[in-house]
Amino acid sequence: xxxxxxxxxxxxxxxxxxxxxxxxxxxxxxxxxxxxxxxxxxxxxxxxxxxxxxxxxxxxxxxxxxxxxxxxxxxxxxxxxxxxxxxxxxxxxxxxxxxxxxxxxxxxxxxxxxxxxxxxxxxxxxxxxxxxxxxxxxxxxxxxxxxxxxxxxxxxxxxxxxxxxxxxxxxxxxxxxxxxxxxxxxxxxxxxxxxxxxxxxxxxxxxxxxxxxxxxxxxxxxxxxxxxxxxxxxxxxxxxxxxxxxxxxxxxxxxxxxxxxxxxxxx
Length: 267
Hints:
globular; 6 helices; alpha+beta; 267 residues; seven-stranded mixed beta sheet
């Protein structure tokens, strides 16, 4: 339990503030027994308070209730970690203000960042393909055929980067990036990651995905600081800037069994 938000062993959750009890999604039918208990006004009376139960069954995409969720394919050029478009669009102004408000109240920021390397998508969820085998090039007998293969959804859908922000219980930021299975010639500036590659502990694709995750995180911080100056007064904007600078110094990006600090990537 944390701040009135309960998480049970089977993944079910209960929010004491909203009185919402949610079961985790499942592809199989599940039997659920619900018992309502009414408490009498006293031990010698039969009158009890009213007990109500509202139930609903929903089928929805993962993370539907996040304050902000963004997933893009080919957000970066080949072998690059330079963002080619901003994170927030004009229509995202409401959620930007909500995030800034949470920061001014200095709610705890929990960042979960991963460089997946070769990706795998199951039920619209992006994860790491632990059984993937790297390819020397895209399939095809000519450059034109290989280019067509590179742009096919088989490969393109795996070159994915996702960002989500959850404000239900503090501020939770999740960023993951993946690549397709074609070998990259990317060489990280990080001495630590370069050493892991030379030791065969991670692949260049994994290192590239780490840098792409880092690029999104730094762009997120930069854009939030920009909007703080635009939407907030000077005092609150100063709180946002200082809090973000301090919190982002602690961020680590997970890559396989290893992790690297965001500020060690020399971006």
